[in-house]
Amino acid sequence: MSEPESDLPEPTATPAGPSVMVLFGGAGDLTQRKLLPALYYLRRAGLLPDELALVGFANRELSLEQYRELLVQGIREHVDGPVEAAIVGWLTERIYYVQGDFRDAGAFGRLQGLLAEIDQEHGTDGNYLYYLATPPSFFRLIVDQLGRSGLAEEKEGRWRRVVIEKPFGRDLESAQALNHELRAVLAERQIYRIDHYLGKETVQNLLVFRFANGIFEPIWNRRYVDHVQITVAEELGVEHRGGYYEEAGALRDMVPNHLFQLLALTAMEPPNSFAAEAVRNEKAKVLQAIQPPTPEEVLARTVRGQYDAGALAPDLHVPAYRAEPGVAADSRTETFVALKLQIDNWRWGGVPFYLRTGKRMARRMTEIVIQFKRPPFMLFRATQVGRLTPNQLVIRIQPEEGISLSFGAKVPGPVLQTGGVNMDFSYAEHFGVQPATGYETLLYDCMKGDATLFQRADVVEAAWTVVAPILDLWSALPPRSFPNYAAGSCGPADAEKLLTQDGRRWGGQ
Ligand code: BG6
What's the CA gap between 451 and 322, in Å, rounded? Predict the structure, then answer.
C-alpha cells in the first residue's frame, strides 16, 4: 500500500536575501493598504531577513517620525486580527523617508546617499527593489532618474529591480513605447510587471490543478470542451477613482491584464518547468494564438455597458456611474464588457471563450467555467429523461475559493430519471484561511528574483494586440444606449444574448 501523502514533510520556504525596498509614491494608498500589511505577514511567516530596510520616496512634507507613523497606521488598519508589537517595532526601525519631486535630480542624489548609509547600517548589500506605486505617467521619469543616477546599474553581484503596477500602457502603441523606454535603462529581467491576480492562491492553483492531476489534462481540449467562460464580477463601483476610470474603462482596466491572465493559465500548454521563462513562453504563445477580432466580429462578439442607479440589496441604493465623483454627466466610458474570443490553435480551435467583467454587478464573483460537451442521447431516447446536462467544472477564484465538478446521477426510484449533482472542494474548509493581502508571494518572489508570476513585455503586447481592434471600433462608434444596466443586476441584456445566440448561457448548462 502506498503511504498517505500527508506524511510527507512540510516544505519550508527560506527568507529572502538582503535588500532595500524603495517605495516611490510611498505615502499613498497602495503602500498603506497592501504593501506594508504584506511585509508584516511576510515577516510573521519568517520570510524577511534582518538585512532589510524600506525607503519611502514621495512629495509629501513629512518628518521621518510622521512617515513611520503613517505606515504603522496602515498596518494597524489593514492587518487582520491583533497586531504583534514586536513585528511592528521591527518594521518601524527600518523605515526611512526621502521627501522630493520625481523631477528633481537632487532628490535622487539624496536617495543615493541614504541608500549607501542604509547598506552600512542594515547590511543590505546594495540590492534595491524599486516599487513604483505611482500613477503610470511617472514610470518613465523615475526609471530615467534611476538610470542617470547609476541606481539601476547591477554590478559586483548586486541586483536592482523595478516593480511596476498596471496599467502598462493604454493601447498597443503606448505599451510598446513604455516597454521601449523601460528597456532603454533596464534589462527585461530587471522589470517586474505586477498583475495582482497572480498573487491569488486559487489563480496560482490553476497550473497545479491542471498539470498535477492525471484526469483533467487529457480532456482539456476542443474534443471534449464545449466552451469556457471567465467572469470577474464586482459589486464595487468606481469608488474614488472616477478620474482614472473615465480614461480607462472596463476593457482596459480588466481585460488585457486580469482576465487574460486567467485565460492564459486556463488555456496554455504545459510549461517544462515553473521557471519564469518556461511559464511566460507558454502564456505568450496562447495569447498570440487568440484571433484579434475583425471590425464585424467586434460588432457581433463584444458587448459594452455602463451602470445606472440601482440597488445592491433592498435597502442599499447606489448612484449611476455618471453621478459618481470625477465622472462626466454624459460619460461614455464602459463599466461592463463581455467578449467572445477564439483561440486559433490545435488545442482550442473552435471552442469559444466567453469573458465578462463589470462593476456594480449583483454580487462579487470571479470564476472560470469549463463546460464539457453534451453526451450522445440515444441510450435515453425511450426513457423519461428529457435531456442530458453537460458536465461542468467551475473554478471559483473569489470570494469563496474552490472547485466543483457537476455531473448527472440517477435519481433513486423505479423510473429512470437523471439529476445534476456536484462534487465540491472548498479551499477554506480544507486548508483553513490565512489572512493575506495577495501581495505576499509577489513581493517575496521579487526579492528572490523569481519572475514567474510577473508579466513579460511580449505577454503584455500580445494582450493589447487582441484588444486593439475593439478599442478602435468602440472609439469610432460611441455607445448610444448608456447607461444600459442597473447597478445590482447581471449586466446589459446584450451580454445574455451573446451566449443565447449560440445556444448557451452564462453560468453554463
Ligand atoms: C484592479 C482594477 O486592477 O483590480 C480595479 O483597477 C478592480 O478596477 C480590481 O476593482 C479588482 O481586483 P480584485 O482583487 O478586487 O478582484
Answer: 39
The atom of ligand 1 lying closest to the CA of 238 is 8
Q: What is the DSSP letter of 268?
A: P
**pLDDT reading at 309 higher than 90:** yes
Catalytic residues: 258
Ligand 1 centroid to Cα of residue 433, in Å, is 21
Residue closest to 53 by CA, chosen among 26, 30, 27, 21: 21
Q: Which atom of ligand 1 is nearest to the CA of 166?
A: 3
| Tens-place pLDDT, residues 342-379 | 999 999 999 999 999 999 999 999 999 999 999 999 99
pTM tops 0.85: yes
Contacts of 102 (CB under 8 A, 6+ apart): 24, 57, 59, 134, 138, 141, 142, 145
b or e along 224-241 (b: 16 or more beta carbons within 10 Å of the residue's beta carbon)?
Answer: ebbbbbbbbbbbebbeeb
- Please say whether the dihedral angle defined by the alpha carbons of residues 426, 265, 176 and 170, taken in this order, is positive or negative: negative
Distance 238 CA to ligand 1 centre (A): 10
All 3 cell numbers of residue 150? 547609476
Nearest CA to ligand 1 atom 9: 254
Query: In whole angstroms, what is the distance from residue 209 CA to residue 403 CA?
Result: 10
Q: Please give the Cα distance from 468 to 349 (Å, whole number).
A: 21
